[in-house]
Amino acid sequence: MDQSSVVTISPVTPDNITSFHQALDMVSRERRYLTFLEAPPLDRFREFVTTMISDGNPQYVALADHRVVGWCDIRRHFHAAHAHRGTLGMGIIASYRGQGLGFRLIDAAMKQAEKAGFVRIELGVHADNERAIALYEKVGFIREGVARDAVFIDGRYVDTVNMAVIYR
To answer: H or E element: which one contains 18?
Structure first.
């Protein structure tokens, strides 16, 4: 059975934090998609999520049986001259990839970002993550450049593709 049919997309709540932290840790420990090599300490992560909630930043999770299996968030830049911009971050645990959850998550977060007055959403994605790049292009992101050798994991340098979408 396609697992995506039993997965709901909803704004993150404080009740999701521990499960969200576990999902972030799972994806981080793959050492392939994120700059994190493991999740930050739970108390620091809890502070990040609750601050995102209180600041009204878009932050959605994919839930399967009340367990976070994916996320997408957009954090607004804090300097006043950059407050129209936000940085997108997302991930999906391995067993739920390839089922359309990435599109559902990013669609929810981007719709909320537009309602919240964001003008520009940007991200950096590992250049070898072709599936993610294709998703970002599908929802309107444009490649703006490449940061060569921007990431160094396990003795290997990886370029980062910088992408953005502008609402105007």
So the answer is: helix 17-28
Q: Which amino acid is at 127?
A: A
pLDDT in tens, 44-95: 999 999 999 999 999 999 999 999 999 999 999 989 888 899 999 999 999 9
Residue 128 in tokens: 């070898």
Q: What DSSP line would sit under 111-148, residue for residue?
A: HHHHHTT--EEEEEEETT-HHHHHHHHHTT-EEEEEEE
Amino acid letter, residue 43: D
* Inter-residue contact 72 to 106 (CB < 8 Å): yes
Strand order in the sheet with 142-153: 8-11, 59-64, 67-76, 85-92, 120-126, 156-166, 142-153
The reported pTM is 0.93
Say if CB 70 and CB 59 are below 8 A apart.
Answer: no
Residue 136 and residue 156 in contact, taking contact as beta carbons nearer than 8 Å: no
CA proximity to 165, closest of 132, 131, 129, 123: 123
CA quadruple 100, 94, 145, 83: dihedral sign: positive
Q: Give the span between the Cα atoms of 100 and 96, in whole angstroms.
A: 9
pLDDT tens, position by position, 108-131 = 999 999 999 999 999 999 999 999
